[in-house]
C-alpha cells in the first residue's frame, strides 16, 4: 500500500472518529453551553444588584439552598432541574432566514445581459449597454407582481438602434418576452422620439362569457370581448351568474360600413367555428343566412331548417349552387335598389333585409373543385364581395390559419375586417391581420383567444363568446341550453317538440305559398329546404 493511500485512509479514519466524538459529546457540549449562559446571567444580575441589597440577596439564596438540601431527594431534583434548564438554554438559536432577494436584482440584470448584444455599441466606450455596464442606467421604471414577474418596464436604448425596422423590433420583443415569461401577453410601445421602449404585461381576458343576446344596435355584431385599452365602450353581459360590464369588439355592417366583410383564420380547435356560430346567432334576428360547411364536420347542423336560414350546405354540388344563387341574388338586389332610387320609391323589404353568407373551410371545397375540374367556389364570391355593401350582403369567410395561401386574392382584398385565433407568432399574426401586431402573443392560449383588426385600426385582443354546438353531447349542458335559447324556433333534435301552432286566420291561409325548392340528386333531404318569410323570395338553384 502506497504512502498516499495510508495518508488518505488515516484522514478518513480521523474524520470519522471526529464525527463520532462530536455525536457522543454533543449533549455534554449542550449542557456546558447552558451552564455557561446561566453563569453569565447570574453574574450580570449580581452586577446589576445595588450593594445595599446584596447581603439580603445572599441570605435568601442560602436559605433556598438549605431548604432544597433538607427536602427528601432535594439535591437530586435540583441537579436534574439545573441540567434540564441548562440543556434548554444551551440550544443554539435558529439562524434567521436569509431575506428574499429583490426581484429586480435577479430579473433585470439577466434581461440587461440578454439585450446587450442587440443594443450594445462595441466601438463606443460609453455605451449604455456593455458587458460590465450597470443595468439601472438602462431601466428607468419597473414593476413586479407578487410572484416576481415583471408587469411594467421602461427600457432605454441607444439612438443608433434601428427601431423603425420591424425585424429589429421583433428580435428585441422576442428577447424581452423570453426573459419576462412566455405565458403572458405583452404590449410593446416604441417611443422613437425619446428612444424608450415601454413593456406592459396584459392580464388574461375573461373566457367564461357564454352565448347570449347582447345589447347592440341593428347592424352591430359582437365579435368578442377585449380589455379596456381595446374598446371605449362596455355592455352588460351575464358572467358567472352575475351581470358584469365588459368592453366588446364591435363590428358594424351595412350599407354605410367601410368594412362589410370578415376573414377569420385560426388554428384547429381554437374557435373559428365558434365565432361563426356566434355571428350567425346575432345575425338571425335581423337577416337571412346561407351557410356552407366545407369541412363537412356538422358544426352548423343546428341551423338546418331554422327560420331565416336558406340552406346549410356541406357538399361541393350544394355549395356551388348556393353561391351561384348568392351572386344572382346580389345582382337582383342591386337592380331593385337602383330602380327604387331612380323612381324615388322606398326599396322593397326583400332587398333591404340583410343577407349573410357564412363560409367555414371553403378552401377544402376549392381543392376538391380543382381536382374534379369544376368551378372554384371562391370565384363565385366576387360579386357578393365587391357589391355586397350596397346590396346588404355580408360575407364571413372562416378557415384554418395554414390555409391562408389558398384563400383567393379577391377574398383577401375585400375582407377588411380580420380575426386570427389561436397561438400565433408575430409574423403569422401580422400576415393574417394585414398589419403589424404590437402585442407579443402568449405561448399557450385558450380556445377563442386571438386578435381582431377592423379596417386600418390597430389590432386588439379578442376572446370569442363560448358558443358551443348544441348537438355536441360532450359540451356542458348549460352552454348548450344557452345556444338553443338563441335559435329562432324549437327543434326536436335538440329539445322537446314545440307545441302545435294555432290555425292561421282565413285571410292569411289564402295567401299563396312559394313553391318548395327542388333537391339536387344525391343531397340529403331537408338540407336544401329554405325557409321563406313575408316578402322574401326563396332561393332557386
From TrEMBL:
Ranges that cross the membrane: 58-89
Keyword match Membrane: yes
Alphabetized UniProt keyword annotations: Membrane, Transmembrane, Transmembrane helix
Origin: domain of life: Bacteria
Bias type Low complexity, positions: 496-506, 514-535
Ranges for region Disordered: 494-541
Protein name in UniProt: FtsK domain-containing protein
Organism: Kitasatospora cineracea
